[in-house]
Batch of 4 targets.
Target 1
Amino acid sequence: MNIIKHGLVVLGMIAAPVFAAGQVSISIDAGKPGPVINKNVYGQFAENLGTGVYQGMWVGPKSNIPNTRGWRNDVVGALKELHVPLVRWPGGCFADTYHWRDGVGPQDTRPSNVNGGEVEVINAVGTHEFFDLIDMLGADAYVNGNVGTGSVQEMSDWVEYMTADGGSPLARLRAQNGREKPFKVAYFGIGNELWGCGGNLKPEYYANLYSNYETFLRAPKHNKPKIIASGGDTTWTDVLSRELKGRTTGISIHQYTIAGATWETKGAALGFKEGEWISTLANTLKMDQIIKDHGAILDKNDPEKKIGLMIDEWGTWYADADASSSALYQQNSLRDALVAALSFHIFHEHAERVPMTTIAQMVNVLQAMILTDKEKMVLTPTYYTFQMYVPFQDAKTLPLAIKDNTSYTLGATTIPGVSATAARAKDGKLYLALVNTDPHQPVDVAVDVAGTKVKGAAGKVLTSAAMDAHNTFQYPQAIKPAPFSARAAGGKLSIKVPAKAVMVVALVE
Ligand code: AHR
């Protein structure tokens, strides 16, 4: 017997809506490709913080946990599936206390020091080990230098150590330490959050400092990193984009998503009510206006679009499960999957101005791809979202219009029901990604591609019964993507997107 309960017909274990789902129309213009989504938009951040690097990724060559030269095989294997294009390291705030010489040379001669009073930084992971990791991942390097407690000389030496050809004393030291060939540093950041943990500076003062540091970052012409200035709010973007014209490839900003209205009262990763579901998603959508605000300043100061807006820290930041810890470990649920997907849609929208983002962070810290506990590892819903969106790396955006969109309202908050993005990928296929933010109602989406008769769609969908569905070491497969396909009928393609879901499909043209 079917029972009507809270507007749902409960059919045994499956709940189907009694209300007719809304019909949303999506039109894609495949004939007018827009800017390319730089693959680095799917970058990652690995800070020496909590167990993000040590334990989470690095266990050392002598560990019983299977590893390659110290890096966990399970974690590296899983990350490879994400085609990680770029990794930012070693911080974050940590970067402004990091002295690179502590992390080169024989392991047993490297000093030990303590960061944040919590995790012993054994300096086992230094420059060579980091490049070993990114070589295994096939990723590019984004190295962040130390302004806060470093010096121009120290930063200049590090860049020379990494990039110089033979003939320089630092290139010889590098060779002595096991690496003859220069490393390739795709991006080099001059400091981090200079308005805060990087030194509590004013933007004008940092702009001067930046010029001083940047002048002495000498790398051979054929191996020059792109240099990133560390920004802050729009005032910082204004000052830096005026003062550093021609001296910077990008200005970074950090934008975290909280659950709830204020940082002090922010909600937890799990066990939240619907109010924190909608507030988290509404807060995520603020990224669009933030990019527009910074973009407008850049358009004024850099109309040639030579300066990128690098969002090199983003993602959810929940109330600490363990308030006494500074490790920033948090669980990751279906809600995080939607946060990631909605953020991608916004980044695609601004593909021209946003060539790079790195989510905070890769393993065990904040909105992580992977959680580990000793020898165990679980993949998070955010991991699966990154995996589903791989085809969007270096894909060409396609104009997309949504008509008759649903909206999702709770209390005083209303957000769009459906969010979508489309692109022509390098494999030639047209990919469509869809998010249904409503945690109760599925939605029917009619898809139309101008000039083409779409025959169907096939891909993956990520959803679950609970808003905070998540994977644990005990139940590592509680939530994972399921295959999805739909066929056009009478020349029309209609896709039913479940409630609270992320979907990526390739359209069959
Ligand atoms: O990602 C965690 C921290 O958040 C970073 O170290 C810092 O840059 C930011 O405030």
Target 2
Amino acid sequence: MTSAPTLVLDGRFARELPELALPWQAAETPEPRVLALNEPLAAELGLDPGWLRGDGVGLLTGTHLPEGATPVAQAYAGHQFGGYSPRLGDGRALLLGEVVDASGRLRDLHLKGSGRTPFSRGGDGLAAVGPMLREYVVSEAMHALGIPTTRSLAVVATGRPVQRETVLPGAVLARVASSHLRVGTFQYARATDDLDLLRRLADHAIARHHHGAADAEHPHLALFQSVVAAQAALVAEWMLVGFVHGVMNTDNMTISGETIDYGPCAFMDAFDPATVYSSIDTGGRYAFGNQPVVAEWNLARFAEAILPLLADDQDAAVAVAVEALGAFRDLYSAAWSTGMRSKLGLPADVDAAEASSLVTDLVALVQGDHVDHTSFFRSLGAAARGDADPARGMFLDLSGFDAWTARWLALGPDADAMDRTNPVYVPRNHLVEEALAAATDGDLAPLDRLLEAVSAPYDERPGLERYAEPAPDSFGAYTTFCGT
Ligand code: AMP
Ligand code: MG
């Protein structure tokens, strides 16, 4: 049985912030075909997967929407690689509207690859199957890892070819997010010089994400503090799991604290703060180890955008913003240190100074020997149970490893807790490439298998051994491409 839902797509963003919402329609799709469908997520939204695969596919491509829906292209600005672009916006995306999910949460239903809009500039408004499936796999892996992220509902092949370096099959990604408010949304509103718009945007963000701020003595300052805290926590999670976002422009940083816009992203293999995968990040601005500093820089741009809301007098507003932004480093460090303690299974009674020196020495060791980040931390679980050989086998500096391990084991690490913190499976670059190449050629089996592995990342299962292993040397140096 498949049934059409009584789906209500609200237009709250468009209603409250019409200056930032351009009503627009998705392009027709000649031959839609569902390549990936997230059935648990569909259920959360009250959508029947059978219907979505059949008569309902037009919801996933934006071509058949429930009555009353008002799809819009959202306006935003942004600093891209440090340079300001006053008008970016949804050049190949649409917000279809907001849905109340099964637990009463308001969530955006959004499309990527849905055709040209007035924000497209030189672009074709389209997306290819490979990059949309990449976002699907990596965002769902992030979700399964417990990291705040936008979700992927579906990827639908459109039947329309897309011209890139070669001709590729086109696709639309249906994405679900707690909202699509970005730092760049505030930059755009600020640049209009319309203080009322800026205030409405801030109030909309408070209502949707940072409810506590509404009751604060100074709600807009509390909003800023809350976003600083959410981003500090988010970026700490990325660093702990070895995630490189790749394009942390201010238009790709959310107000909600969810990871967004999976473009040239990748999971780091060998531990190295200088790791960069994106072909366009030639200066290493968005290298793995730079991500906390970049997040802080982006938050400074957010502060500038909302300055008029922080105090009437500009100097006073700057002082307030600087002080609030000052919390970022401590919040980030605390989140990262707590996360590292948990990755090492350290009992609560180990004191902070001891944990900190242990972590510092470990980072030097794994960096020195270019140890695979994911498999090393996972292998520490076995080491805590008495089998240090798999971890030891990753090092050249054996005496360094042995000395560190003896110190660590003396603290009584909790192996079971570590196995709940250190994933076995992340979407490794060679596996993602293999799955996307096969899917682009019409074979979805490798994609489904990879999704099976990364959807339960802490649960080691027989038959999935190769999903836990680093890339073979033959895979070579990895590069991801933007402009997807
Ligand atoms: P991104 O790098 O995906 O965050 O995108 C940055 C900006 O470029 C956004 O305004 C996008 O809407 C726009 N953009 C990216 N790809 C395309 C495309 N194929 N056609 C039109 N606009 C695009
Ligand atoms: Mg973007």
Target 3
Amino acid sequence: MSPRTVMGQNGAMTSPDPLRVAVIGSGPAGIYAADALTRQSREEVAVDIIDRLPTPYGLVRYGVAPDHLKIKGVARSLREVLERPGVRFVGGVEFGRHVTRADLARSYHAVVYATGASVDRRMRIPGEDLPGSVAATDFVNWYCGHPDAEVESFLLDSEEVAVVGAGNVALDVVRILAKSADELLRTDIPQPMLDVLAASKVRRIHLLARRGPLQAKFTAPELRDLGRLDNADVVLRPEQIDIDPNSAAMREAERAARTNLKIFTEWAQRPARQCPRSIELRFWVRPVEVLGDERTTGLRVEETELDAEGRVRGTGAVETLDAGMVFRSIGYAGTPLPGVPFDEATRTVPNSEGRVLDADGGVLRGDYAAGWIKRGATGVIGTNKSDAAATVRSLLDDAAELREAAGGLEPVEDVLAGSGAGVTDYGDWLSIDAAEAELGASLGRGERVKLRSWEEMYGALGR
Ligand code: NAP
């Protein structure tokens, strides 16, 4: 392909001299950036969405829980963007390994980093690294069939486990641990992982929040899902939802907190149904030590309270839970991209309205950020749409300068030749997609079952 011709996934040609943009990451933020870039009429733009995986959709594919089919349906609207003229998917290419920022400068006027926040935050307590003390992010990757996850990483051989954190990821993890294999049958969880879940010995799940019911970050629809499980009782002691004086004002102020409190109150009042599993929700406890010699055998927790400024402090009252596994679900963090400025404190790429800033706070021409790597791991999928659109507005405002600064651009194919990348395109993704649909049908499980390794995915491409 000549550098002056750009072809969309559907083969349609775009203008010979478009503004050429590489988006790194094909999750919602990256695809929404491509959407905003190709939906406007100020500039003709050609976008390559580059991902290290041969599959698009980022956290929609490898983060959204497999039983949240409605949220997973977002992929359908993201697909429409990938199939738009002027947009290409370039899979199998890892930024920093196969291509550097300098390489991309040879082919693009601008680069948008939309790599998300893929690692876990740490509890920073003794015993955290014992086997059996795990990051929720790793468990999520595992049950979502991320190709980096090994089947053997999780055994689920303990009757009692603890999940630390009061956010929606913790609810996902608890739900997947609590559901029966039959309830998960019609999801896309890879078969070997479903077999492990089917053999799970987990009976009692402690869900631990370090602050109170009004401060929990759970959202109401996700809480309601938990309350509706057939296979597990949610157990909440009535005294747990007493409102402490330092939180009382919040009850009046925040609608979301009031809605959550209503749900917690229902839970505290309803009788247990004697389900096979129980989810015991505890507020006002924080983990202080993971116990065990060779593997996790318990979790020591300390009761907490809020001080007058709303900060969490320990009361000194400790107790031990017999948890054989501890899942820390206390938020996601971004990882540095080679050669790109990074703020270790916020774990994001420093930026002003999406323009990447260098160490002195100056704008790095041609570099932009969108999504979680820009603002941190907050908000729902849709939040990334307005976030990416704001970044794209900055980029388009800079277009004249970006064109002027770039010399003659080379086709990215030339830049990638010899990089060692197993480059894939949108057609390859459709082949993987079809193979997953076939697998789902052959196992009698549903719309799709994921291929779970690099070998299986590249195998489906005959490579
Ligand atoms: P989150 O919403 O930020 O929740 C993190 C939780 O961890 C908070 O309750 C926080 O408590 C707690 N925490 C932090 N440090 C802790 C520590 N050292 N010890 C104990 N607890 C600690 O993060 P998330 O659950 O990872 O979710 C990330 C984003 O994805 C959120 O915006 C979430 O809504 C979204 N999401 C949505 C869905 C969905 O189904 N809609 C599913 C998954 C994720 P404090 O508040 O006290 O800091």
Target 4
Amino acid sequence: MRKLTTLEARTTSAGAVDVDVIAVFQDSGKKPIPPRSVYSGAVERLRRGDAFVARHGSTQFVRFGGKGSAESCLLVGFGAAAELTEEKVRSAGGNAWSRLVAEKCKTATIHIDTLFAAKGLPREPGHARLARAFAEGLVLGAYQFLKHKSSAKSGDDGYAGPAKISFLTQEKALKKQLDTELGQVMDIAECVQVTRDWSNEPSNHGTPEFYAAEARKLAKQHGLKITVLTEADAAREKMGLYLGVGQGAEREGRIVVLEYTPKGVKNPKTIAFVGKGITFDSGGISIKPSARMEEMKHDMTGAATVMGATMLAARWGAPNRIVAIMAFTENMPDGKAIQPGNVITARSGKTVEVINTDAEGRLILADVLDYAQDFKPDAVLDVATLTGAVSIALGKQAAGILGNDDQLVESIRRAGEVNGERLWQLPMWDEYFEDLKSDTADMKNSANDGYGGTIRGAMFLKQFIRKGTQWAHVDIAATAWAVGHLSYIPKRGASGLFVRTLAQFATDF
Ligand code: BES
Ligand code: MN
Ligand code: ZN
């Protein structure tokens, strides 16, 4: 694991640091309110009517040239105090990180009390949550995928951002809370890093075997039980749909099963997480166009999200048992590959006519969802880059969520909401299944007409959910990659979104 920025809470100054970070709000006339602090240089600049107006999301770097407790000061704009939300603070944290990196700062002190000094701040979510959100924005913004760069392993000149960031507060009680909160934020940074690294990994390196081996190391570090199923094991399990998808690939598939058991909890509830792990989706015989096909290395992000979230929930000591199942395989065209029109049999016994070999995610998930239900879970949640259609429906601003239990869907949606990770429910009316009925088999994997793609994907999965199982499905095909609108998410490559939501859900369920 790459060395990450260290976060710490303090009630006294950390001594000589590069930069002091202070929050600045706007008054009703949208003018910056000079912060109540010792940073006279910065305050003077504000009074002189400098360009900095403290609009939410803006930053201003001020160099003192040796005066004050730090060499320089970073002003972070928060807009109007009354309109402040946790997500706005998280977003400002992302902007602050970018600016600290641009200015090549090595250490920083966040004068966190300047965030609470504003008049008219909403009572909720409270100081500790706001400070935590700022920390989240800082650490989530800090990410680079440099594994395959031969020269620089940490940026062009070896600089990868501040090594240490202190959160300074005069409130002793808050400092104590922050010790815990910042520890949890460091956990987030490390677990989301794993998800992003996995997601960004090219498929010649990121093979099913590779992820199984990585999962083994991570499971050991986190005290998780791990079982790895080979294709021979999957054959014994009669996973005909999972094996059908991998049939055209040279590289063998792996199904990774992780188990987390909470300590000291009598009869914990069980949550099953299921992740789509297509290490490369060429489309198979129904081959995809070549434009941007390279992005299909991230078609295993559902599995990567489940991995990161399970580690995170374990670190946080979630009170529920988690069974995490990650189904890895490749979707490739070949002489042995499944062909359109083929009929294959699922673990559940149902038969499927494969109309489109590019609708492969639902095939592998069907078998692992069936397998997951053998663990008698109280809730099942699968996460998958399942359909391009979800980006048409919701854009990159929200992931699609569907399920057979509105209460479960709502609790996952809420876990997302508090983390700034948006989920939006789509309907699952029975009529949507009409188009997946087959003349030859029990169902088709695609209707091939381009309508209601995300819902149909979920309707297909629903056929493998047993009576009495509470189940939800999250389609992250749009939000997993190249998310541009969040300051704390890399603009290119893996986003790492929904790791926090899943861990939160596993903690609160
Ligand atoms: N992995 C893709 C979905 C996808 C598209 C993920 C874009 C990320 C970005 C999935 O396997 C797929 O190909 N889905 C098809 C389904 C169709 C053939 C029914 C799609 O969305 O076109
Ligand atoms: Mn596909
Ligand atoms: Zn796919």
